[in-house]
Amino acid sequence: MAYLLECRDKPDSAALRQETRPAHLAYAKEAPAILAAGPLLAEDESTMIGSFFILDLPDRAAVEAFNAADPYTQAGLFGSVRIQPFRWLLGTGPKAS
Known about the structure:
Blueprint: E1 2-9, H1 14-29, E2 34-41, E3 48-56, H2 60-69, H3 71-74, E4 78-86
Antiparallel strand pairs: 1-3, 1-4, 2-3
């Protein structure tokens, strides 16, 4: 099952994001469940304000475990997290069964 994972940074946390970014990227690069991912950007199109993932995992508990192990989560970067089941319909991702 595909899931959207949207994580919004706490206010005034840019320094924490930059400090933790190398560990977060290393974690993400090793995660085979990631179908797509990247930083969420502010309206200036350059300031990172969160993280967004499309994950291929069996259930919500697996998404929660993935997020809990993320160095950003462990550092307390995120002020809010949204997990949403997702059915891929168009584009180059996995096709709906």
